[in-house]
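Handoff note, outgoing to incoming analyst
You'll be picking up this chain. Sequence as last confirmed:
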Amino acid sequence: MTESRSDWWRHATIYQVYIRSFADGNGDGEGDIGGLKSKLAYLHNLGIDAIWINPWYPSPLNDGGYDVADYRDIDPRFGDLTQAKELVSEAHDLGLKVILDIVPNHSSWQHEWFKAALEAGPDSPERARYIFRDGKGPGGDLPPNNWRSVFGGPAWERITEPDGTPGQWYFHIFDVSQPDLDWSNPEVRDEFLDVLRFWFDMGVDGFRIDVAHGMVKDMTKPDLPYDESNLLASPKIADHPFFDRDGVHEIYRGWREVADAYDPPRLFVAEAWVEPPERLARYVRDDELHSAFNFDYLKSPWSAAELRESIEQSMSVLGAVGAPATWVLENHDVERVVTRYGRLDSTGGTVRDRPEVREYDQELGYRRARAAALLMLSLPGGAYIYQGQELGLPEVLDLPEEALQDPVWERSGHTERGRDGCRVPLPWSAGGPSCGFGSNGSWLPQPDGWGEMSVEKQDGVDGSMLELYRAALRTRRDHPAFRSPTMVWDDSLGADVLAFRREPGFTCVANLGAEPVALPAHDEVILASAPLNHDGTLPVDAAVWLRTG
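Most recent structure output, in case you need it:
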């Protein structure tokens, strides 16, 4: 299924596994490597090329595993290194690549380095691995500046020194349990080069880089003029002190040398929230990272004009540096697309605890999500599918407050519910204590009726979301047009229709307007997100793939 050549990633479909919520193999209520291994055949049959596994490292899970305590091991909740090696080997036997998350911006406060920093005291080599500063004001009682965490609240936390006195402050872009590493320190840089080699030597095919735009800081910068507390916002001011600084590119050139030393070369994917798109293109130049998530496309509303603008801009800007575009509708940080596209305001983002935002039309969202799947999967470049997206799962908006675990909930003063709603464990079967997720419940409660959207209920059912994805991915893999890096728009169908041709002989039409549209001349309907009307027209909020001469 996966090509052996080194540029397989240019048109690959990568499936994101949030391991804690994917499948529970040992019955403790949390997903694990055993559960993932048991579902590899399912993923293979889905038609993907690779799996990307969210952090499985030892962690107190204050931020869903993105607070890493040891970069060279597996959290016992999920398994061990032996199981990890077996997983990589079994995935490769099925033709599936394996990509891991790496979290270089910060560690957990349970990491041995940070523990040593607290014990060693000011001006020590141990503290130099992190960003410690003296406070301002009498007795250093005020934080060094007004910078804020993107999870809400100050980005500085004061510690107690080993002698019991109030001490220095450490910097954390995210949760207080995630102290930022100091990437001006050569020891930090060398450590992560070694971490890369550790996993590459195990056979891992690449890394998705968390907060790829945030590792380099200029701590001499003054207070910021506004609140930097939006999780999904790109920095809006020039020369930002801790986002998208030019120094990150030197780091990635070094990483690329490590990746290219392997046969076949290993892959890097950037999570970089940057604007304008020309800034993103800098991350995927020939000697840096291979590809980057297309957050502009993910955040675009259900609008033909805005989606087209995102598609054209992405392909133009990234193509200028020889990189493919990537397309994504969901991930573990954003609201599920069925829910988002079921709203009048369908712009991507996290859900906030406001009634007018929480309400949506599930039937409308489901119909649009099916059309969006065909549109996304037909575009030139790589595509990402978040677990459960292929089942049409909605965002779970009514999780009990006592069940919420995302740090956004606490740090926002219980005004933002955070991202738990897209992380509810998957339903594999219609019944059982956790709808087939495991034998003993699930770490986040599944809502009533969750099993009706399960793999069991959709498997082999004509017209189900699962079978739509399987058919689309089968065509994406087998049709020669999907190897072409180009597309040509067809503007004859109106401003609310996205239609384009890829050679040889493929056309996609997506109707985002208010009226059915007549299809262009074609030889065959390959796949449709909804049945065509009796007169052969394409319904509203539907997409179709056509074989054309």
